[in-house]
Amino acid sequence: KSANPQWREQFDFHYFSDRKDMLDIEVWRKDNKKHEELLGTCHVDITALPTKQTNCLELPLEKHPGSLLMLIAVAPCTGVSISDLCVCPLGDPSERQQISQRYCIKNSFRDIKDIGFLQVKVLKAVDLMAADFSGKSDPFCVLELGNDMLQTHTVYKNLNPEWNKVFTFPIKDIHDVLEVTVFDEDGDKPPDFLGKVAIPLLSV
């Protein structure tokens, strides 16, 4: 019931190459659980923004009245990575020793925000549901921790996909829950849900 909503939410997006990236934003109005209406869209060319500073942008909604006020910061990606299983970032014993030293008790207060990180090896899925008429699926796996999200590539026409990827997340809250969701890629349509598991960090 507001024409001037304040959300004050922060989201982190990661990209790992020098490609041209556009941030697409949509504003929706929700009457009830069933009815939603698009109130407008806007786009931000990330590559055109100055780096290592917070950019305050007022973005008019295209073809609709109103505007969005956003703070966008483009900074080097730290603590987040995607790699193949054969080049696992923690595979080197000397690197493990450096990390143990970094998080030992005497260094606990050196950087209060550096709680630690989580490394997840996504190996494979077994006996997934068939989402296509062919009796197969095109599965990919999405990992979410807080507002960080990373995903695997798609393995086409397979109910027993092997991804063999290693994902590393910085931990911002030890009470966060790692959510791992498997979807079926469906062309231009929204992906189909194939299954999900939730793992509290405190259980690891």
From TrEMBL:
<dbReference type="InterPro" id="IPR000008">
    <property type="entry name" value="C2_dom"/>
</dbReference>
<dbReference type="Pfam" id="PF00168">
    <property type="entry name" value="C2"/>
</dbReference>
<dbReference type="GO" id="GO:0046928">
    <property type="term" value="P:regulation of neurotransmitter secretion"/>
</dbReference>
<keyword id="KW-0812">Transmembrane</keyword>
<protein>
    <submittedName>
        <fullName>MCTP2 protein</fullName>
    </submittedName>
</protein>
<dbReference type="GO" id="GO:0005509">
    <property type="term" value="F:calcium ion binding"/>
</dbReference>
<keyword id="KW-0472">Membrane</keyword>
<keyword id="KW-0106">Calcium</keyword>
<keyword id="KW-0677">Repeat</keyword>
<dbReference type="GO" id="GO:0030672">
    <property type="term" value="C:synaptic vesicle membrane"/>
</dbReference>
<feature type="domain" description="C2">
    <location>
        <begin position="1"/>
        <end position="59"/>
    </location>
</feature>
<keyword id="KW-0479">Metal-binding</keyword>
<keyword id="KW-1133">Transmembrane helix</keyword>
<comment type="similarity">
    <text>Belongs to the MCTP family.</text>
</comment>
<feature type="domain" description="C2">
    <location>
        <begin position="93"/>
        <end position="204"/>
    </location>
</feature>
<dbReference type="InterPro" id="IPR035892">
    <property type="entry name" value="C2_domain_sf"/>
</dbReference>
